[in-house]
Amino acid sequence: MANNLGLTIDRSSPVPLYHQVVQGIEAAIYSGVLEPGSRLDNEIDLAAQLNLSRPTMRKAMDELVRSGLLVRKRGVGTQVVSSQVRRPLELSSLYDDLTNNGKKPTTEVLSFSHLEADDATITTLQLPAGSKVYHFTRLRRVGGKPLALMENWVRDDIAEMDEAMLAAEGLYSILRRGGVNFRLANQRIGAMNANDYQASMLDTAAGSALVTMERTAVDDTGRRVETGNHVYRADSYSFEMTLVQR
């Protein structure tokens, strides 16, 4: 049976009924059938349209709310939050991932300096004492909406860079032009609540959930090329990974 969203329930399928609803609404959101801000029918009406029990429909909606795709608003109902940027977990830059997926990111350079590295950066990048690095903070937007606040430290003996270059293209593109062949990265992904500064930059409420990423990239000669701390709006961004049994 299908409703006006094109959802179909296959009662002969081994996939649980509630999860079929989740998959159908996810597909509608990612395909653009359900745009950000779209309102869904209430759970009773949706259950009736699909000939499902109300508890089954509520379980599906609860999962979509937990995943950040839907939000319940008093007096409004259930709405689509946004279409997330879903980033595969591999050694690539956010700028490259966005452009490769047909999006047009823009970058605002919030700060830029070329200075002597502090002790923590020297240790992380394994630099000689007294070495200089580029240190900068950028705000990346997609479709005019803030997505990521990124702070990076980059060794300065690979390629020259300035604010204009960083505003026009991705960091990894600049470094590849300088001869860097990225080999691997040490990366840690986590979560935090936005402080006042992060909230103002990312156009969200203080205390909102953010995805965090710390990364140090290494090239094929063994050099630690750059290190960075990035935060992303959790309602607009997620990482994807495949786990393999060993």
TrEMBL record:
Annotated TM spans: none
MF terms in GO: DNA binding
Top-level taxon of origin: Bacteria
Keywords: DNA-binding, Transcription, Transcription regulation
Pfam families associated with the record: GntR (PF00392), UTRA (PF07702)
Domain HTH gntR-type: 15-83
InterPro entries with a match to the protein in the record: Bact_HTH_transcr_reg, Chorismate_lyase_/UTRA_dom_sf, Tscrpt_reg_HTH_GntR, UTRA, WH-like_DNA-bd_sf, WH_DNA-bd_sf
Listed name of the protein: DNA-binding GntR family transcriptional regulator
